[in-house]
TrEMBL record:
SUPFAM superfamilies: Cation efflux protein cytoplasmic domain-like, Cation efflux protein transmembrane domain-like. Residues 207-284 form the Cation efflux protein cytoplasmic domain. This is Protein p34. Its main location: membrane. It is found in: Cell membrane. Residues 11-202 form the Cation efflux protein transmembrane domain.
Length: 295
């Protein structure tokens, strides 16, 4: 079992525990704001299952029907998570509307709030684990899951303060008001998750820093070549694809050109994890006098 899959399973376990705590807090208080918090946690559990499935599919090796592998499956999971976040926000808005039209006093709020705070602390710790490990292992599904939990933590803090103010002032309408604010925050979070996942599905290039590293490696390692041009990169989940044209002198033998490509490819793989490098060798009359200058 890979570390990424273990983290995905951990998300399911944490999500179920947090959901149980938040449902208990809602049952103890009758707070619509706390119900909105619990509804978001329901989505957390569903999306954690979706992330686990996507990560397992993404780990499958390339086959005849998918020669580039299955790594983009994680982006579909992240988009699904974004859609489910938006659906949760709409459900919360519906509950808040019912609260505005029929406000009611809260029951046993302090003990319920204490349970909700405990759930938020657990969520906060786990979202930090998911985001840090997801970025380290280049897993869009884990990062999306972590960011979703982060929005959950932020909204939970807002809910707690809102319910406390409602208790002190006696303004029951503040409870559904906080629920509506939670829904708006969740809507924004869902949109960001979808937008970031679309960049991967659209084959967005690597970051400026990584591109600079790759260019420097080619310039330094392709000793004996004329130039390198038409550098193209893209990322698909944990996999990174780099391809470019390498112009070599016409009197270079096939073996020499191949050895040069092997040297450049090995250097890139040493600097960039999970990378697939494709180099197209061209004779010097194909030089464009642009791109990467070989030292």
């Amino acid at each position: 079992m890979t570390p990424v899959i273990r983290l995905a399973i951990g998300s399911i376990v944490v999500g179920v525990v947090v959901l149980a705590l938040k449902l208990l807090a809602w049952r103890m208080t009758g707070s619509i704001a706390l119900l909105s918090d619990a509804l978001e946690s329901t989505v957390n559990v569903a999306t954690a299952f979706a992330a686990l499935i996507a990560i397992r599919v993404a780990a499958l090796p390339a086959d005849a029907n998918h020669p580039y592998g299955h790594t983009k499956a994680e982006f579909f999971s992240a988009i699904l998570e974004g859609v489910m976040i938006i659906i949760a926000a709409l459900l919360i808005l519906r509950e808040s509307w019912h609260g505005f039209t029929n406000p009611r006093p809260l029951e046993a709020p302090l003990s319920g709030l204490a349970i909700n705070v405990a759930a938020s602390i657990l969520n906060g710790i786990w979202c930090w684990v998911l985001i840090s490990q997801g970025r380290k292992r280049r897993s869009p599904a884990l990062v999306a899951d972590g960011k979703h939990l982060l929005s959950d933590v932020v909204s939970s803090v807002g809910v707690t303060f809102g319910v406390l103010i409602a208790i002190e002032t006696g303004w029951a309408v503040l409870d559904p008001g906080m629920a509506a604010l939670v829904a708006l925050n969740i809507l924004w979070s869902g949109w960001k998750v979808i937008r970031e996942s679309m960049s991967g599905l659209m084959d967005e290039s690597l970051s400026t820093e990584t591109l600079a590293t790759v260019r420097d490696i080619i310039s330094r390692e392709a000793v004996g070549a004329v130039e390198a041009h038409d550098l193209r990169t893209r990322h698909a989940g944990q996999a990174i694809f780099i391809e470019f044209h390498l112009v070599v002198p016409g009197d270079l033998t096939v073996t020499q050109a191949h050895d040069m490509c092997d040297r450049v490819e090995a250097a890139i793989k040493a600097a960039v994890e999970d990378v697939i490098v494709t180099i197209h060798v061209e004779p010097e009359n194909k030089a464009k006098h642009t791109g990467i200058v070989v030292l």
